[in-house]
Each structure stands twice: as structure tokens, then as C-alpha cells.
Specification:
5-stranded mixed β-sheet, 2 domains, Nucleotidyltransferase, domain 5, about 300 residues, about 45% helix
């Protein structure tokens, strides 16, 4: 049986089709269409007609791709992106008219739980913290605890952090403001007080983009197990803050669609590592789509 999951995030709409047989799942296809809703949204959170059209067209394109590979069911999920759109009913209607699909809107803890389900095996490393450096929000989960009530979704994602400075990249003062904001957000929300997590599992497209820049800068050979050391990431951030020419070249060469969010992602990761005394980041290639499907197959989504 082939099942498709589409995820509408703040920067893209992505598709995963998996072959499901009992408890076994194997990837059939993965596609992504870049759609930055912030480019089509006014200050009040309303998506323009052009933005709505682009969303509907992208969902239709990916649905056709899912049909071509024989997907028997399609689940269209949305996380923080639909939660911040004020005219979301208009967006949902346009997508429904174009594709016949309805959005399944996940709240913040649902999103964190899906991330957990996709990455729970990393608990074998010992104390490990999951950080989904998504768009508007950031999700955190103790990978040794499966309770939704122990998970967090906070307005500290890279897109939210990007909104805290005026230019394309933060200066030193703005970077310090981001660090203080992340620390204050964690303390205000009582995020795992007193805990130490030596390992942080980074999830999401922004994490993938950051790792691409890190691997390029430090000439890291290709590997299926991708890690970043906190000290080396701090060195990279310092370089990026000082060297504008090399920064632009690194960003454009590795992740041109993420130029606005790579530095906020790095600052979020570093401040999280400092807050929980982490030494290492592990880059996961599994996120909300994979976790949603796994929870669905294990009949745990409603629990």
C-alpha cells in the first residue's frame, strides 16, 4: 500500500510517498516545491490572491505526482504556516477546489510529536533533545519521553527570529538580541529546567541548509551520519558574521532558497546547545511527514 503525506510549511510544500507493509515503510518518492508564504503575506497575516494561487497550484502539482506513483491515499498536513494565515479558510477553499483535499492542521504539540515519532530511535544515544528549527515556530522534545505534554512549540523558529532584525543578515547587536530572546523564551516556558542534553537532533529544511554550509566550509566528506560540533559551528557563525563576501558565496552555493534563515537557524542551534550544555548536533533527514505517517500506521495519532 502506498500512502502520501504532503506538508505545507512556511517556506515550501513537500511530498513524501511511502510503501507501507505492516510495520515496514520504505520511501517511494520525495518532492518539494518552494513556496515562501511570507513573500505573499501582508502585515496582518493575510495571504494575497497570488499567494493562494501558488499554494493551490503547488498542492495540485504534488498530488498529480503522488497519483503517478500509485498513492492510494493522500494526507495534506499543515503546521505553523496555516496557524499564522488569517484568511486560512480562503486558502483551504482554493486548495479544496483545485485538488479535493482538505488540510489536516496540526497544532504545535502535534508537530513536535510527529517529529518525535520520526526520530525516537536517537534516544539510544542517551539524553538527546530534538529541535525542529522550522519556520515561525521551533519544536522541542526530549527523545526519551513519548508524552505530548512534555513537548514544546515556541515562537522562536528561524523565520520568527529573522523578523527581529532589519536587514538580510543580523549584525552583532541583533545576533545578541536573538540569543537573549531564545534564552528568555526557554526560561519563560520552563523548557526542561536543569536538564543536560549532550546531543541535539536537528530537524527540518533549515537544519539541512545549515549543515550544507557547515560541510562546505569545513570540507566535511559526505556521510550518512551527519554531525556538527558546537565549537566548530560557533567558529562558522563568527566567520559568517564578519565575512559578507564569503557568506554570500557559501549561502548561494549550498542553499540559495534559505539565505534569510541560515544564520537565525545557527544562532538558535547554538543558544539551545548552550542552554542544555550540548556538545554535538545530529542532522536528521526525517521530520513531520515521516513521523505523522509512522504515528498513523501505529494507530497512535489520536492518543
Amino acid at each position: 500500500m502506498r500512502i502520501a503525506v504532503m506538508d505545507f510549511s512556511s517556506t515550501a510544500i513537500s511530498l513524501l510517498v511511502e510503501e507501507v507493509s505492516g510495520e515496514m515503510m520504505s520511501s517511494v518518492v520525495g518532492l518539494r516545491r518552494s513556496v515562501s508564504i511570507l513573500d505573499y503575506m501582508n502585515r496582518k497575516g493575510k495571504l494575497s490572491s497570488k499567494g493562494i494561487e501558488k499554494v493551490a497550484d503547488s498542492v495540485r502539482y504534488l498530488l498529480e505526482a503522488a497519483d503517478r506513483v500509485g498513492a492510494e491515499s493522500v494526507h495534506l498536513i499543515s503546521t505553523a504556516s496555516m496557524r499564522i494565515i488569517t484568511n486560512y479558510e480562503e486558502v483551504a477553499e482554493a486548495v479544496r477546489n483545485a485538488t479535493g483535499l482538505d488540510f489536516i492542521i496540526l497544532d504545535g504539540r502535534d508537530e513536535a510529536y510527529a517529529d518525535y515519532m520520526a526520530n525516537r530511535e536517537y534516544a539510544a544515544l542517551g539524553d538527546a533533545l530534538l529541535l525542529d528549527a522550522g519556520g515561525i515556530s521551533a519544536e522541542l522534545a526530549d527523545l526519551g519521553n513519548s508524552s505530548r505534554d512534555s513537548m514544546y512549540s515556541l515562537s522562536a523558529g528561524p523565520v520568527a527570529l529573522f523578523r527581529r532584525f532589519s536587514g538580510m543578515y543580523p549584525d552583532e547587536e541583533e545576533a545578541d538580541d536573538i540569543r537573549r530572546y531564545v534564552k528568555k523564551t526557554y526560561r519563560k516556558n520552563g523548557v526542561y529546567p536543569g536538564r543536560v542534553f549532550p546531543h541535539i537532533v536537528l530537524v527540518g529544511g533549515n537544519a539541512e541548509a545549515l549543515y550544507s554550509v557547515y560541510a562546505d566550509y569545513f570540507s566535511v566528506p559526505p556521510s550518512s551520519f551527519r554531525t556538527m560540533r558546537k565549537k566548530k559551528l560557533r567558529k562558522l557563525v563568527k566567520h559568517l558574521m564578519l565575512s559578507s563576501d564569503d557568506r554570500s558565496a557559501l549561502f548561494i552555493r549550498n542553499a540559495p532558497e534559505k539565505v534569510h534563515t541560515i544564520l537565525p537557524t545557527a544562532l538558535l542551534a547554538l543558544e539551545t546547545a548552550s542552554f542544555f550544555s550540548a556538545r554535538e548536533f545530529i542532522i536528521s533527514d526525517r521530520g513531520v511527514k515521516e513521523g505523522y505517517l509512522r504515528a498513523l500506521m501505529e494507530d497512535k495519532w489520536a492518543n
